[in-house]
Amino acid sequence: MKFAVLSCIHGNLAALEAVLADAQAQKADRIYCLGDLVGYGPYPNEVVERIRTLEIQTCRGCWDDDTVEGVNACECSYPSVLAEQRGLAAHLWSNREVSDQARAFLAGLPYSLREGNLCFVHGSPYSAHEYLLPETDAFVAVERVLSTGADVLFCGHTHVPYVRTLDATPVEITVRGPASASGEVRQFSASLKRIVNAGSVGEPRHGRPNATYVLYDTERVEVDLREVEYDWRSTCAAIVEKGLPAIFAWRLARGLEFAERAEDPTHVCTR
């Protein structure tokens, strides 16, 4: 079978429609969504309705979570105070804009999905706010995949697509208990694992405004990182017209993160 995996749509309806059309042209058998249907973009209700109508299996993203729980912007998710202020403005806008029906749909989304040896999450299996990056420590990366019991972990949240293969290597851990201060050393071998990041449909950060998503062939075990052109200018205009921070239109047009980096992108939200 061929699965299309989408993430981080962020209220960008034009990008979503373009990706859905491309997935259909590529003869995808099923579609999975890794969350963040809302936030940043001008059409949150329309995006939620499209996902709901098509009955696309979707897990809850960090923006979806905050929209359900109320305006509670988590500072550990932002790379700077300025970014947090912009994020809070977007949260306040979303809180006013998102309909009760859309909010109820988001509230019903699970935090993870499973399909055979595949697992789908937004950020990581531990938190929708945790970033799994290509340079994340290999032990941490392997542990995150192992914790799901899957061989392939699909994630988003970073807005930059990538495939990371974690070769089968020995893993050594120390188990400490009440009776042993020094701990018992145990070794095991983790089979080959993969982390596949689907990038972002609605707010890409790979240097271009084009939408990205992933096609995964379960028979060939092949990953195709897709990049789809669409009318991003209309979305940028709508961002400004609807009163969202204009910087969101600027960075969408350039496919950039506005040159901000988190000091500790692997930090797990504990709130």
CATH superfamily: Metallo-dependent phosphatases
CATH topology: Purple Acid Phosphatase, chain A, domain 2
- Give a quick account of the main beta sheet: strands, pairing sense, barrel closure: 5 strands, mixed
Domain module tally: 1
**H/E element string?**
EHEHEHHHEEHEEEEEEEHH
Structure description:
With about 270 residues, the chain is an alpha/beta fold. Helices cover about 30% and strands about 25% of the residues. The chain contains 8 helices and 12 strands. It has a 5-stranded mixed β-sheet. Strands 4-5-6-10-7 form a 5-stranded mixed β-sheet, with helices on one face. A hairpin with a 2-residue loop joins strand 4 and strand 5.
Features:
five-stranded mixed sheet; 271 residues; single chain; Purple Acid Phosphatase, chain A, domain 2
TL;DR?
Helices cover 31% and strands 25% of the residues.
Topology:
Layout: E1 2-6, H1 13-25, E2 30-33, H2 44-53, E3 57-58, H3 62-69, H4 81-97, H5 100-107, E4 112-115, E5 118-121, H6 138-146, E6 152-155, E7 162-166, E8 169-177, E9 180-190, E10 193-197, E11 211-217, E12 222-228, H7 232-241, H8 246-254
Parallel strand pairs: 1-2, 2-3, 5-6, 6-10
Antiparallel strand pairs: 1-11, 4-5, 7-10, 8-9, 11-12
